[in-house]
């Protein structure tokens, strides 16, 4: 699959590594432009190339957003139209600035991203495991157990596409529900956030029957 990744820091470059290793083609961008990503491009190998943010957004059927949440409004919304967008971000008031709607819990951070990227289908995933654990915890399909990755989103087809990607890199997707209710179940501050749970255990903790 062709995957665009916006954000080439800890989580973006980890996902680029995992997806290129799985044989996917990745176009990755940061805020400073592709020339600043040549070392990473070289390190990732022939399945990766560095591009502008707009090119990464338009590159594939799926685009991963892995920038500090406070920068989501900088994303060029038109370029995401019709795509599945994986929101790997988390709201952190210390880093992103205080947002009253998020503080009061009237909306989730992924719902705000969905409003900004109105023509895309936003799915929240890969936000709840630390980058260095994500790099190492993947297991082959035949393994007894796999770690669970919570997923929330409003569009069923987009979610299924993300489930496939999660399985490709050695994890088991766990459907947490819609972006509103489900997204709340795997945000920072929840018991599953960075808890590195086996899929069955994650399912039990977030109260879902099975994916
Ligand atoms: N670190 C983790 O373990 C982890 C795990 C799960 C989720 N997350 C979430 O993932 C997000 C990124 O975290 P991180 O730790 O990977 O951050 P990071 O290491 O600081 O990397 C941030 C990346 O985003 C890029 N960026 C910033 N603003 C941008 C913009 N407007 N357009 C394009 N690229 C932009 C930066 O590019 P420049 O360097 O060029 O500015 C940098 O490549 C956060 O919301 C975080 O909460 C982190």
UniProtKB/TrEMBL annotation:
Zinc listed as a keyword: no
Keyword check for Oxidoreductase, yes or no: yes
All copies of the Pyrroline-5-carboxylate reductase catalytic N-terminal domain together span 2-91
Q: Which domain of life is it from?
A: Bacteria
Name of protein: NAD(P)-binding domain-containing protein
> Which of UniProt's keywords are assigned here?
Oxidoreductase
Q: Which Pfam families match?
A: F420_oxidored (PF03807)
